[in-house]
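pasting for the record
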Amino acid sequence: MIEKIRNILKAGECINVEFKECKRELPKNVYETVCAFLNRIGGELLLGVKDNCTVTGIDKDVIGRIKADFVTSINNPNKISPTVYLTIDEVEIDGKSILYIYIPESSQVHRCNGKIYDRNEDSDINITDNTSLVSTMYIRKQTGFTENTVYPYVTMAEFRQDLISYARKIATVARQDHPWADMSDEELIKSSDMYRKDWQTGKEGFTLAAILLLAKDDVILSAVPHHRTDAVLRKIDTDRYDDRDLVRTNLIESYKRLVAFSEKHLPDPFYLEGDQRISIRSMVMREVIANSLIHREYMNHFPAKFIIERDRLYIENSNRPHVYGVINIQDSRPFPKNPAISAFFREIKFCEELGSGFKKVARYGKAFFGIDPVIEEKDIFKFEAKYGKDLYSLMNVDEKATEQVTEQGGQIGGQIGGQIGGQSDLSERQIEILILIKENKKISRKEISDRISINPSAIIKHLDSLKAKGYIKRIGKTRGYWEVLK
């Protein structure tokens, strides 16, 4: 990171680089720059640096407050609309602290204090009253992000009510005051930035993102007939396959089925974090699978692949590259290829905040595979992980025994639908348990243990914790059923 910052300082300000002096207070025009970067091609913002590239630094006693003020403001719709999620890194250069902020290009047109800003060379330009420039910006966003393609003849009848209800349920379990709770199905879709106006034709309608996430299969395949992910296991029959799932459905159920496929055919090595055992298979594969669905270029006809072999796993899908070549996942900066789809996945807890997922893969990838995975971004995005000796040994034990051990995990992955961890005071397992209790009017401790394959003693701890936090209560005096309170 330090070497990267030095290179930025050496090159100076340009259309996607801006310096702001920031000794003890955030400059007022910093949000105009954020807005302009979002509306143009993204950029990198350094706080604590003069326009002439001199590093002045930020006083250490105010860095925490400045970071908090910045995050609060960009999440305030009265300041930046629509709001955005950005990461801030503190970096020390020559003994002085500065803040580095990466701002990705957005698929939406953003406003700062009600005004639209664009980037020109190293300046932020207010174009609010220039109808021609504003229209051009909307058209550029429309064509640059194909998830925004408008389908004016798609109506609410083409969407699956059960999928919308499922998304609403997960979002409200994870966050009780979630705005989706009181919205109609149509309002939920529109609030997720999946209903737009086509500024070239003047027509309005639901977008490709809405269709891919929530529409009926025949509608999806009419809009993108080439849409599919071919999940294949090749361990014994390497010329054809040992198992296969051709996934041609909405992205929510695609995620569930691919997760279930990975849980069915990949072992889960024993791994302790502190004194707790965690599933590193789950940590890695859920993020990798979500990433392959979120950042895919769906207008490209390249068939997506998810291949598990005896000595490696690889995933390929079409891509609109932001950079070319092998990505260092330790230092990579997130770039949202399909921001609306990405945001929807985050709301239903299928993925982390932008950039956090890659960090999880970087953290647990080597522990799971035994070797660091390789990520290559070109017109075809490829994730490849060769197995270290430990995982290779687990992958190639007796096939029948492996199938018996992993079959139940695969079924559970499909039933639960992507494990929805996320609420600040609940673990992933606890949210699983909450959903089971909520969906089954009477379910016992043993039934919960059987359904999600957790040993009874661990179930007792989870249930006691949920009861102490006020999420559930016990009913009945004999078998001891449970019900959800909130």
